[in-house]
């Protein structure tokens, strides 16, 4: 065991006693700084607290001028104290005045002190203030003194977080922890949610750091690990998870990691070095997080997140903070905030109470986002600092449409969003009333409205939305939420379940579209400079024919006696279609040879996403049974715009003349060849752009289930022939500079078309 000083343990014990006494906040702070100074033999101990205006104010001191309390202040990043707060890192200086960041505050009388030790007061990585000790003599403080001060800072962080210091905050000012904050992120799932913060990782403060008996702590760890493993087994056996089969593979991975001996050995080693079981778990977890920050490999980052989740579960076991005790106070309108989380963790929460999900990390393709979107939960990702800026129970608004999170919103903003939510609710009622209304335009044009899907949990929305089928079923999602490659039988059962739940409605399966931003954890590929333009989708499948043939065979067997409608993603040349047809024919022959029943009808189509196909339209239309335009990628590649790059994503308009002319050419080529044409992409799900598509001649579009109602309301009021004439004129007139978007908006307003 390490030879640790008793100082931290004694100091912590005395501080706990102070926290328990019925004292006024200022008196409690004053006694805390006196106790720290006495314990550390320091001539000065001071506490600076961060205000909402970015100023660090002196709240208590022992040794400096008492009159400076609540008057002395430094801006964030200013002076030694401001530097510590801004960097969230300690400073240990033998001669503070020689440091380039030193700033002299004459009102404090600190010029006679040379040695300086300052630590940030942190809560979930967020600076709430700074704790400082000083001495006249020049010296560097020892490691155990730094440890004592850091431990004490954790206690002060909890004192600030409870709101106790509000009583001694000057009128008109507020602490940083309570101010209204708006966080800009990325929209991962549309919708608006109002509710209260539920931090995914409950802040379990480990104050019992040093152990008295290492063997006893090892036994505590072993018991907690046993309970953890049982809880994971229980999750796997739960009926609802088993029924949703897609998540089982993720949970199996959790079980494997819970038995990882390397993880257990590192925690046992920390205990033998003198830490308690919970402190050892926290230390190993912190080390893992530090490594995770430096990782770029998506596969490894996903695995690190699994370990992080397990560490949190283990801490709850050791401290008695169970999932059940957390859910007892679970609000009926919860917005979950997390740095990162797995799909399995989301399933721990009562689903009917979740109003939104905010993630600091992750991507739109991460497991939890895929599941959340399938559940219809608004999601904002890449919301930097969200967890540190919020507290459990804080009022919060998540705007999944704009990618914004409003923590502790001002009253007027809260009211505005409440009205927005009420309006959306009224509109949803109107849309539900249209569910069984035939989608006929005002001038009698029949429009086919279909929905996009990718998971079994999407399927109930097919009937609820009034969609007439699935125009795009993303088969890669099954691969992305699995921890191992789905076997042929698993794929077959999955596709059969999709067709059964579609209940006779047409389903268009897109073959595997992985690569680029669609990461499959177990499929390791080389890093590419431009992954969106690289080895992905049909290119990858043709280079791995075994992978494609397995999927084709599963689709054929699952569709036995029914219709199979499938399409290929990211086709660049017609020759690629022919190559897949050959593989398909081999699978048909193989199944026939062994007496398997085949689909009664096979429709073979293609996604038109790569601009090169625009110069092969005649050949393309002859080669396939149908074409589906992938507007997202087609726009991205046509405009040379990375839609994931905020600097250029909105630079060009999807309703600009150049792109609409491309779409019109595709419609004309399909009409000439008599080839069925549809469009699936974000354009189809927005009333104004969907209106433009109908004006161009599209009669079939596919979108998210939630968009079906708004699109149907729009088309019922639309005279397509009138719009087509207007739109053709706007696209053919090379003299006008009036944006097409403005022309379409004006048409909608003049004709009372709801947008």
UniProtKB/TrEMBL annotation:
<dbReference type="InterPro" id="IPR050499">
    <property type="entry name" value="PEP-utilizing_PTS_enzyme"/>
</dbReference>
<dbReference type="InterPro" id="IPR015813">
    <property type="entry name" value="Pyrv/PenolPyrv_kinase-like_dom"/>
</dbReference>
<comment type="similarity">
    <text>Belongs to the PEP-utilizing enzyme family.</text>
</comment>
<keyword id="KW-0963">Cytoplasm</keyword>
<dbReference type="GO" id="GO:0005737">
    <property type="term" value="C:cytoplasm"/>
</dbReference>
<dbReference type="GO" id="GO:0008965">
    <property type="term" value="F:phosphoenolpyruvate-protein phosphotransferase activity"/>
</dbReference>
<keyword id="KW-0813">Transport</keyword>
<keyword id="KW-0598">Phosphotransferase system</keyword>
<dbReference type="InterPro" id="IPR000121">
    <property type="entry name" value="PEP_util_C"/>
</dbReference>
<keyword id="KW-0418">Kinase</keyword>
<keyword id="KW-0762">Sugar transport</keyword>
<keyword id="KW-0808">Transferase</keyword>
<dbReference type="Pfam" id="PF02896">
    <property type="entry name" value="PEP-utilizers_C"/>
</dbReference>
<dbReference type="InterPro" id="IPR036618">
    <property type="entry name" value="PtsI_HPr-bd_sf"/>
</dbReference>
<protein>
    <recommendedName>
        <fullName>phosphoenolpyruvate--protein phosphotransferase</fullName>
        <ecNumber>2.7.3.9</ecNumber>
    </recommendedName>
</protein>
<keyword id="KW-0479">Metal-binding</keyword>
<dbReference type="InterPro" id="IPR029016">
    <property type="entry name" value="GAF-like_dom_sf"/>
</dbReference>
<dbReference type="Pfam" id="PF01590">
    <property type="entry name" value="GAF"/>
</dbReference>
<keyword id="KW-0460">Magnesium</keyword>
<dbReference type="Pfam" id="PF05524">
    <property type="entry name" value="PEP-utilisers_N"/>
</dbReference>
<dbReference type="InterPro" id="IPR023151">
    <property type="entry name" value="PEP_util_CS"/>
</dbReference>
<dbReference type="InterPro" id="IPR008731">
    <property type="entry name" value="PTS_EIN"/>
</dbReference>
<dbReference type="InterPro" id="IPR006318">
    <property type="entry name" value="PTS_EI-like"/>
</dbReference>
<dbReference type="InterPro" id="IPR040442">
    <property type="entry name" value="Pyrv_kinase-like_dom_sf"/>
</dbReference>
<dbReference type="Pfam" id="PF00391">
    <property type="entry name" value="PEP-utilizers"/>
</dbReference>
<feature type="domain" description="GAF">
    <location>
        <begin position="24"/>
        <end position="170"/>
    </location>
</feature>
<dbReference type="InterPro" id="IPR008279">
    <property type="entry name" value="PEP-util_enz_mobile_dom"/>
</dbReference>
<dbReference type="GO" id="GO:0016301">
    <property type="term" value="F:kinase activity"/>
</dbReference>
<dbReference type="InterPro" id="IPR036637">
    <property type="entry name" value="Phosphohistidine_dom_sf"/>
</dbReference>
<dbReference type="InterPro" id="IPR003018">
    <property type="entry name" value="GAF"/>
</dbReference>
<dbReference type="GO" id="GO:0046872">
    <property type="term" value="F:metal ion binding"/>
</dbReference>
<dbReference type="GO" id="GO:0009401">
    <property type="term" value="P:phosphoenolpyruvate-dependent sugar phosphotransferase system"/>
</dbReference>
